[in-house]
Fold this protein.
Amino acid sequence: MALIVATVIALAWTLWPDAKKADPVAKPTPVPAAQDIVAGTTLRPNVCGNPAQKPFVPKQISIAGVADHANVLALPRDGNNVPQAPPLSNVGKTEFAWDAPTIKPGERKGNALFNAHTWPDGSAMGNHLLANLHVGDRIVVFGKWETLCYKVTKRTVIVASQGSYEYYVQDGPPQLALIVCSPPRLGPGNWYHRTIWYASPMYGDSEPAT
């Protein structure tokens, strides 16, 4: 009789539909690991977390809302000892130029000099910079292996014919100096103003890139 009762109890436990649901010791829901990615999101690398510790040749630049790994051309100065701009072409208008004979990004003093084109139809890199690059924004410069982030500290407009001593400073604090032509346009290749951004290197900054 005892054997029959035990058998009936075992069958009831197996076949009763809510038997397992009534288990008061439910298994906890696994908690996602710290590196799991929630559906619909992506992990963003902290590009500013490991700044370059020595000077390097710039290869690309990224600026939120302006450029995503845009090419940087290392160009010599022209016959008048003026930094050259990228070629006047559909590719050149999307690129930056770096004044190759002078200060590199990562130097401990002086301005690393960059420039870009502004086009009358508003389609060039300079046009995007004029519209979207402001004080407090970030410029990320990439070398072959190195990365260095800069924070824009100053945006200034000068009369082109007057030039800018400040742009060419080589013995001041380390900076990135970026210049483009700015309105009004007086004729082909002739713009009345120049807009210049100055940006300081973000050594030790660990906040994620935007």
Notes: Confidence is low (pLDDT under 50) at residues 1-44, 205-210. Residues 2-15 form the longest helix (14 residues). The CA atoms of residues 118 and 126 lie 4 Å apart. The radius of gyration is 29 Å.
